[in-house]
## 1
Amino acid sequence: MDKNNYCIIMAGGPGSRFWPLSTEEHPKQFIDLLGIGETMIQRTFRRCAQICPRENIILVSSDLYGDIIHQQIPGLADYQVLCEPTRRNTAPCIAYAASIIRRRNPNATVFVSPSDHFISGWDDYVEDISNAMDIARNNKWIITLGAQPSNPNTKYGYIQFDEELPMPPIGNLHKVLTFTEKPPVEVARQFICSGEFFWNVGIFIWHIDVLIDAYRQYLPAIAEAFFDLSEQTPKETIDRIYSQCETISVDHGIMEKSDNVYGMRASFGWSDVETWDSLYNTCDHDRSGNAFISGKVFAYDTRDCVVHVPNNKTVVLQGLDGYVVTEQNNTLMICRRDQEERHVKFMSDVELSKIKSKNKH
Amino acid sequence: MDKNNYCIIMAGGPGSRFWPLSTEEHPKQFIDLLGIGETMIQRTFRRCAQICPRENIILVSSDLYGDIIHQQIPGLADYQVLCEPTRRNTAPCIAYAASIIRRRNPNATVFVSPSDHFISGWDDYVEDISNAMDIARNNKWIITLGAQPSNPNTKYGYIQFDEELPMPPIGNLHKVLTFTEKPPVEVARQFICSGEFFWNVGIFIWHIDVLIDAYRQYLPAIAEAFFDLSEQTPKETIDRIYSQCETISVDHGIMEKSDNVYGMRASFGWSDVETWDSLYNTCDHDRSGNAFISGKVFAYDTRDCVVHVPNNKTVVLQGLDGYVVTEQNNTLMICRRDQEERHVKFMSDVELSKIKSKNKH
């Protein structure tokens, strides 16, 4: 394992799509979504630690989640957990971590990863990323990974690879032509038919110098604000910088503009598990199509359901077809899997009612 | 309130029909089935205390439930909670309590009541029972109550009243002709059409002398074994008597044989709430036909459901029609209301699995 390999894990998202499992206080990355005794961020950290030395992994999150991270990943040094005072999307987040990394090792190769995605085929994953890091170490390229799309998902981002003229001629990299966020379904269908489009898995690999240069060129204000930060910078300074900083994603701020982004086809399986339906599809099913992720489930005449409850809970289901059954924080939700876009409404109704009831007392 | 009024509350049943709410360790009478902050036995005790002085109420239960009774009804004296070592149905249970009552007051009038039935119209109830006690005080009759049947229920017992010739000519009492337990549905339909049949609400009112005489005549072995018991009788003696005692109901052992049983039409509403469906029918419904008995429920596209969960639990339901949703002891059950006869199977599957898992460790 190369001691110049560094990793930035982005762990500040407030994802409450899996409410009541996930909440703003305890979002998706801190949940054992797969029911395997390991939270998404623990799993991501363990995976990244197969590529970078443990002490080279920096987690960037929110002030809200610093304690949870130290709790879930014991033994991290202070410099490994950076807490943002406000959410400013991914560009500032990566800049903050990059500034710390550059001071620790000006020859770092940096691998940026989300904290809450599902990866199958860990060996392939480690091999892909390690290969990409080896290439990025000696080239001025930004390398990203594209997963083979299996359906016209309208919630993902798509990357277009230049298939005609693979460039540069190493590592099976292709020039990246376009980035498209969440296309309409017809567009997504055309993307898939063309064979040129891949799901953007949110992973970027670049040498620290390439990263710094890209920020200086495309996001100079962020570069200027962030690249002087060190482990000793007082919190007041961080707060001030964030309060004045633009909210922008690294995709939009750099990747879409830069002309030296190269794509690699991921050989591992990937899902961002953003919805109950994608979680259902990610998990193993029994013969009746049920994904009983956690809890001790006894099912009768029950099909195509997904169950995620505390592991010590017994659940008896009878006569349910296509439902989500989940519980967390003493809140039980039973609803149709195909109605999951309404979860946000359910959540806000419940939370509003709690606030009203608090105000009454 | 007459100080000779006594009450025997029978509270030894093991009812687990409402599993997972009710279990053999914590059966129906000890549950707040109606979600009103009061268990069935607390409610029964409070109702009976409107008819008999509190200290004249004797609860007969099982060794298993003595502690729960003292917990749920604080301040009871030892003589008020009789614990049977084994279940022998209602005839021995009433004989045991009657023996204690006779020693305390040889002029007692005794009202025998189940502990886990639903009564609506408490004023009517108090008036009916008080009237019956006034009559029983001065007559050698056994008085029972019959509720107007609203449907051909096949799980209830039926009492046939002699409508032609009301006898005796006081208190609107009718001679009771027959007792029928759980008739087939065609028979139950005929019973209802005839107008002569009433639901047996399991309440009997008799002077202590009438009770003793009836046992001596129809159940002499039980009379001999039990009527020497006192508050001082050692537990070993009780255990021995129960081990040798016949298992028989007071209905079968006395009521069906005696020719001085008289029936009174109950003016209160009654249900033995023996099934989820009868609980559903007993409770108030919202406009969508839901009976949300306990818990904080948020329902969307949900009809004809019954929810009974711990009160501090939030439940979000979407797209459910005709389901039971219930939780107790960390066991959640979601199943169709019309499939409730299968609950016993669900319960045994879960309990068996717990035993197996214990044996493994």
## 2
Amino acid sequence: MSKPYKGFEPKWYRGEVPANSYRSIFKWGKPDFIKVPKETLYNMMKGIFNVTDDDFKSYNENLGLDEVKFDVAKKACKDEDIKFFKSVCGDDNVKDDDYSRLSVAYGKTMYDLLRLRNKIVENIPDVVVYPSDKKEIEKIVQYCVERRIPVYVYGGGSSVTRGVECMKGEVSFDMRKNYNKVISFNEIDQTITVQTGMSGPQLESHLNNAIAEFKAKRAYTCGHFPQSFEYSSVGGWVVTRGAGQNSTYYGKIEDIVLSQEYVTPVGKIVTSHAPAEATGPSINQIMMGSEGAFGILTEVTLKVFRYMPENRKRYSFMFKDWETAQAAAREMMQCEGGTSSVFRLSDPEETSIMMKLYGVEDSPLAKLFKLRGFKDNEKCLFLGFSDGEKGFSKNVSRCIKRIARHFGGMNLTGYVTKSWEKGRFNDPYLRDSMQDFGIMTDTLECSVNWSNMAQVHRDVRAFCKSRPNTICMTHMSHAYPQGANLYFIFIAKMSDLKEYKAYQDGILDAIQKAGASMSHHHGIGKSFAPWLEGSLGKNEYEIFKVLKNHFDPEFLMNPGGTLGLDLKPEEKISKSDKIDFTKR
Amino acid sequence: MSKPYKGFEPKWYRGEVPANSYRSIFKWGKPDFIKVPKETLYNMMKGIFNVTDDDFKSYNENLGLDEVKFDVAKKACKDEDIKFFKSVCGDDNVKDDDYSRLSVAYGKTMYDLLRLRNKIVENIPDVVVYPSDKKEIEKIVQYCVERRIPVYVYGGGSSVTRGVECMKGEVSFDMRKNYNKVISFNEIDQTITVQTGMSGPQLESHLNNAIAEFKAKRAYTCGHFPQSFEYSSVGGWVVTRGAGQNSTYYGKIEDIVLSQEYVTPVGKIVTSHAPAEATGPSINQIMMGSEGAFGILTEVTLKVFRYMPENRKRYSFMFKDWETAQAAAREMMQCEGGTSSVFRLSDPEETSIMMKLYGVEDSPLAKLFKLRGFKDNEKCLFLGFSDGEKGFSKNVSRCIKRIARHFGGMNLTGYVTKSWEKGRFNDPYLRDSMQDFGIMTDTLECSVNWSNMAQVHRDVRAFCKSRPNTICMTHMSHAYPQGANLYFIFIAKMSDLKEYKAYQDGILDAIQKAGASMSHHHGIGKSFAPWLEGSLGKNEYEIFKVLKNHFDPEFLMNPGGTLGLDLKPEEKISKSDKIDFTKR
């Protein structure tokens, strides 16, 4: 746990999270685990948000401890439908109580959290079904298609794009409970086939224990570790085209997927398991990214990798400024010395916050920075580690160190990387603690080429910072020889849904205008859909519509705006009215 | 040049190739270059084909030296169409003479060569257009779509799938002459954008000379070297999903492409240049592999790589048998020590031929094999080299050597690899020399998983060898952690078109039945199209039809069987009547 505060400490909510409460739905992760900002970070935030300790003496936001209870009528689901679902999945695996319905309606974007804290119950399913095998899913989808009943899927629930939201109500499959089994493991081909409700830790545990579990010769890893790892599902990774923090080495999920099986209104789609092909357009790549709009992903075969944590080499460097750091990162990605596994470069604002978050500011290092002429609000932190075979990992580390030195980077050893690793999956817990006091944290990300990176960073930041008293941390991660992901984290005192939506829209506008691709790994969902056609182009977007019309002409698969495919202009989740944030 | 024969040497045709002859169309490569088998290989073939020197005293096949001349009426092209094409591209860039028409009609499969040798002129365009820029292509495509005129494209002409064949006649764009310029070079992103008629050597030359030509900081390479390198085009690589011999390191062309621009009947398609995305299905991956059936690929942006030949490490090993060699190759691909650039494993039959081809049989090594217990018709040759940064390349070589030793491989040093490199682009010349005496050489390839490789190899070979007096060499190349490409080369005394077609069909049947994917990098074209739906599945294949119907509902883009998309069952290039090859 974190160190006790020396000065005033906000009354971070450390109480119970009642089992059937709103909080139990929106709270990140384990009910009994919380994480709070370090004192240095808290003090810094006060300065930035222009608030005092007094603002942290009582909660500014609903804690959401009440039991979930509402009076929202079912949209169309009939008793006979529920009876049918029960006949397929068993009585215990079909639920229509308030809690079950609401718990699969929202994801984890700030828009979701704010609605849950404020008991805004909208767009929920009539009934939740917990399938156990794909035959059940097939039967229910067929039944629903025949009766034009909309179908939704809830995987891990960590969507930040309103991807799981049941805009048209009716049925949602909650895959977490029963649909998480290993179908087969193939050590010769190094693949595993799983049901799509399997969570990250479940998958990784099977693979790490392959020797005992599958009588394998060695242990394996999935290589896919998004920040949401513990509460995201394999199916969610695939349909959104997610990326793990180690993707620079292991690849994005679309590189890790070997084959997929879907149930769609026009029948099953089973993609090829060949390692590569020249047999027309890639059906694997047509289905990935379909976000439930073409059908339900029932099985995935993933490539697996050897589990060799003993070969990991950690490194971190401080660079003089963003421009130099970017040039170094680009050289690291283009030198062909092998790719780093985690590869992460923070801009000056994120760097100064990370220095506080990881306690570097209190260490002797801080003095060294000054001595060496590294300035606050200019210096940039790079960290990462390599994976793979021992010699490979070593060579990656060797190249990175050589290049960092060449660009004047100051070697911070593996210390900072280790600090980052400690928080890599539990930083999202910070969000709930801070939001209790009205401080919202959210993220948006995009994909850029190296030649466009400076402009995208500058333009998006310019919009973010046009709102006074707002933190905007940016890092570059998931890198490639041709570019990288730019990831923006914004933190502000903000509790108003409308303001939040307008702010998010403004950032999306800035991303699009600067010429970046709208998402590198979060997906599009329903939130970002209004930007999709503008980003891809009219003729290009038309291809998605053609595919949607083929698979789901009645708009029954994740309908209500997914990828923007099925709505009339006036129905779309529209861009908000502009708010002039400079005037706040 | 090759060593003179000690004994009888066939009268290999070394004469002129008249400029407007059939031979000038079907002959591989440079008009004045020929290559003939080494004496050891010639003697071996005589034994296998059960023929004598007498059979090589006169040519058994037409040499095709006559001037191209035929009387095939135009299908539908009117004078006004030609006038329009000339107004767009200039008088010199529109041709309708016999030679120009025939020279873009066929590719390089044995089926094409046999037709050309026998003056079988069918499926030729009415007129050939040589565009210079994409505006010209756009104008002509628009004109043709309005008038329902079928449009074909001829890139490098090395198709082995009847990909370029003008089944419905009318217009073919020959991209070789004028459509081969660099559009832009971006050293920051390490990309080059080119017109799609650019040949492999043209592209590689621009990149190798980047310092002088683009004022770049360093030299680059395209990383894509198919055996057809010298006579294939960038556009052809992309639309067929080709692979170079170095693809194990550099990737298949679909990994190397960053973005593409197409002219289609429904307008332009320009794909995203972001390095990776989560913005729905991949449009890049929908267009790649469309083989001209959706529209014409006008521009491609390729990733480029650093040109560092000084870091290359060569290796070759002999393994005891196919099973051991496969196991070693799999370990090399799964060990995560970095991937070899060229990575090639020959089965016993190919190994014994390569030993002859590369003169190893005459060397002291041959004796060592016997001493060490490596048996003919059992031992397997592995060869390859690594590329990339110096330490990376070294580590790949180190891992390969360690693994080869572990599996009992005998180190043959880089000698054999160098021999292979010498022939890597000019082995196709052998084919014409041998065919003059009625010996045909052709290839088929497929994609397999490791767990299926032994079966596919066994079953396909069983069919190939069911025909007596037939060579069937197989190698595994283009490898992945999950499997590899299996490449079959068959050589036989065979001159009959029907027999050839039936034999090819039998192999394709065997590939499909054994569960391999129908192509790893040759594409599908018109020849393999009848197998495509069976290989992909009905629902999966339907997706291609939906896309075709969107882009080209009137069947004007490369029509007549490409990917099997536009023909009624009775029009299809059908599978042949079965021939019992064991009875020949």
